[in-house]
Structure formats: structure tokens, C-alpha cells
């Protein structure tokens, strides 16, 4: 990493980035990397190692965050009995709880004060972090499924030692891939359905 970002060349908090190193780092990444990530709900019995979990968290920690405020925590559970207890009342995981070899509870810290935009940003930041964690798992050939944090996280709060100011962003179930496994055939939207390229001028500001 130091070859890409030269902290030694930093001046007043600015680091120099080496374009060549960035290009070398991304050269091996193809669109297939993204196309092969699907939500996985059936896993092999092979446990996920601590080193793999730590690597996924290290990758997640690179996610951008508003104002550089990185208030995330990842609570990870790998004992199947514990995962079953944590997800006992989870409505989105019926039928595959026993398949999960790991469960990450991703949290962020609630801002103090009434600032509504900070409260919104904490969920946006949390989404970027969670997605980066999912890609951190995928980059190691591990499967995952995001699970909603449930509107009412009291079941989790009763069982996971969360600080009072921690809010659950979402959960991520994960594990090693089976040789063959089923996924929901969720269609990806067509680029033309979601991309709106604006090449002209924009409306003058309304008063
Ligand atoms: C915030 C969020 C919450 C989700 N919650 C659940 C869930 O509770 N149960 C589940 O089986 N899948 C859940 N998913 C996975 C989605 O169903 C899945 O991503 C979607 O169907 C697209 O499929 P894909 O991930 O294979 O592309 C969730 C995904 C997100 C982003």
C-alpha cells in the first residue's frame, strides 16, 4: 500500500498517490468480480478463518465516510448456536440460519445533537462500509448475504453488548462457498434504465 500512497510525502495531512501503482493494483480486476457477487444463503461446512475476517474488515475500513468520521464497529460471531440465538426472531433469515458460518453485526455511532443531516449521513456511511465489507469477503472467495438490521433491534441489543450510542446498520451472514450453490436469479437493471447522462445546460436556479 505504501507504494500507492506515499505518506512520507505528506504535507499538512495530504498524501501523494502514485498513479502507476493504482493502475497496477486495479489491472487484474474485471467486471466479473462484481458480476459474480450474489447473495449466498447456503455455505460449505469449512469455517472462515480469523485472518479472512480481519482482512474483510481491513478492506471495509477503506470505505469513504462523510467528514472522515469512521464510527463503525463490526461485531462478529462464528459459533453456530450463538448465530441461531441472535437470528431467532429475524424475519429475513428463515430457512438458512443454520447455514451461516459467520454473522457480522455492523454498527455505527449515533451523532450527539439534533443535526438531521448527520443522522442521515451515518446510514449512508454505514451502507458504504457494509458494501465494502461484502466485497472484502467476496475478494477472498467467501460468500455473504446482507440481512436487514430489523426496524426493532431490541433482540440483538439484548444479546450483543452494544454501547448505548451504537445503532445497527445491518447484519452480514457469511461463509465459505460450496462447489455449487443456488442463488436467487435477481435481474440486474439495464444501464439505460438507470443512467441519465445530462450533456446540456441545467435550469437556472429557481427563486
Ligand atoms: C439492506 C439490505 C437488507 C437485506 N436483507 C435481507 C434479508 O433480511 N434476508 C435476505 O435473505 N436477504 C436480504 N438482503 C439481500 C437482498 O435480498 C439481495 O441483495 C437482493 O435480492 C439482490 O440479490 P443479490 O444480492 O444476489 O444481487 C438484503 C440486502 C440489503 C442491501
From TrEMBL:
GO molecular function term, any single one: oxidoreductase activity
Superkingdom in the source lineage: Bacteria
State the SUPFAM superfamilies in the record: FMN-dependent nitroreductase-like
Q: Which InterPro entries match?
A: Nitroreductase, Nitroreductase-like
- Is Iron one of the keywords? no
Q: Give residue ranges for domain Nitroreductase.
A: 36-88, 112-175
Q: Which UniProt keywords apply?
A: Oxidoreductase
Q: Which family does it belong to?
A: Belongs to the nitroreductase family.
The protein's name is: Nitroreductase family protein
Q: What organism does this protein naturally occur in?
A: Xylanimonas allomyrinae
Taxonomic lineage of this organism? Bacteria, Bacillati, Actinomycetota, Actinomycetes, Micrococcales
Amino acid at each position: 500500500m505504501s507504494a500507492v500512497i506515499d505518506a512520507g510525502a505528506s504535507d499538512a495531512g495530504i498524501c501523494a498517490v502514485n498513479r502507476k501503482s493504482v493502475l497496477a493494483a486495479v489491472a487484474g480486476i474485471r467486471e466479473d468480480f462484481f458480476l459474480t457477487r450474489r447473495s449466498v444463503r447456503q455455505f460449505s461446512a469449512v469455517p472462515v478463518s480469523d485472518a479472512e475476517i480481519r482482512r474483510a474488515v481491513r478492506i471495509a475500513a477503506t470505505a469513504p465516510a462523510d467528514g472522515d468520521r469512521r464510527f463503525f464497529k463490526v461485531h462478529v460471531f462464528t459459533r453456530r448456536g450463538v448465530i441461531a440465538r441472535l437470528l431467532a426472531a429475524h424475519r429475513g433469515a428463515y430457512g438458512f440460519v443454520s447455514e451461516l458460518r459467520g454473522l457480522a453485526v455492523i454498527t455505527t455511532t449515533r451523532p450527539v445533537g439534533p443535526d438531521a443531516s448527520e443522522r442521515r449521513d451515518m446510514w449512508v456511511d454505514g451502507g458504504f462500509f457494509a458494501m465494502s465489507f461484502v466485497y472484502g469477503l467476496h475478494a477472498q472467495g467467501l460468500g455473504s448475504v446482507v440481512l436487514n438490521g430489523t426496524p426493532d433491534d431490541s433482540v440483538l441489543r439484548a444479546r450483543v453488548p452494544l454501547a448505548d450510542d451504537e445503532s445497527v446498520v445491518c447484519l452480514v451472514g457469511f461463509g465459505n462457498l460450496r462447489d455449487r450453490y443456488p442463488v436467487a436469479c435477481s435481474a440486474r437493471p439495464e444501464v439505460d434504465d438507470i443512467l441519465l447522462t445530462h450533456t446540456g445546460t441545467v435550469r437556472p436556479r429557481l427563486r
